[in-house]
Automatic annotation (TrEMBL):
Protein name stated in the entry: Uncharacterized protein
InterPro entries: DinB/YfiT-like
Organism the protein comes from: Streptoalloteichus hindustanus
Length: 164
């Protein structure tokens, strides 16, 4: 599979996440940043497992509960620093992208069953899409959306610092 778009999406997210390391975020911005990085790192693990299933010729089930479950995210936040969370996103994302690079283009049509949970850990919906659609959604919407929100936090922190 072509990994250019998803690679660029991770680069953008990681760039802004690294820039937030020394930013003076307010309490809500810091909490949302911590949650976001843990959520992405945990979901990358799930997606890497799904990629392995696709490579093995099996249609995967992607159940995002482990990446949305409040206690799992809280535990990861408590046990890591911001820098460690950024590194976890970097490593887990790189593993996922590497698996995608090894995935033949024909496997983009592999059906993926989805179980989707919200940020509160409550079940939202079940569905299905192709592997290629799921990867495109992550590259074009999911990761850039998180990056944009974090960039907004960075801009707000910089504005507060300039105002003094």
């Amino acid at each position: 599979m072509n990994t250019n778009d998803i690679g660029h999406a991770y680069e953008g997210l990681l760039r802004v996440a690294a820039d937030l390391t020394s930013a003076s975020l307010d309490q809500q911005e810091r909490a949302d940043t911590d949650w976001t990085l843990c959520h992405v790192a945990l979901s990358d693990r799930l997606l890497a497992d799904a990629a392995r299933e696709v490579l093995a010729g099996r249609p995967p089930l992607v159940d995002n509960l482990p990446a949305m479950e409040p206690s799992a995210i809280s535990s990861l936040i408590r046990s890591t620093t911001h820098e460690e969370r950024v590194d976890l996103v970097r490593r887990n994302g790189a593993e996922f992208v590497d698996l995608l690079a090894r995935t033949p283009e024909k496997d983009e049509d592999t059906p993926v069953r989805l179980r989707v949970f919200g940020r509160d850990g409550q079940h939202v919906t079940d569905g299905e899409m192709t592997w290629g659609e799921l990867v495109r959604l992550r590259a074009e919407s999911h990761l850039p959306g998180h990056a944009a929100r974090l960039a907004g936090f960075l801009a707000a922190a910089q504005n507060r610092e300039q105002r003094g």
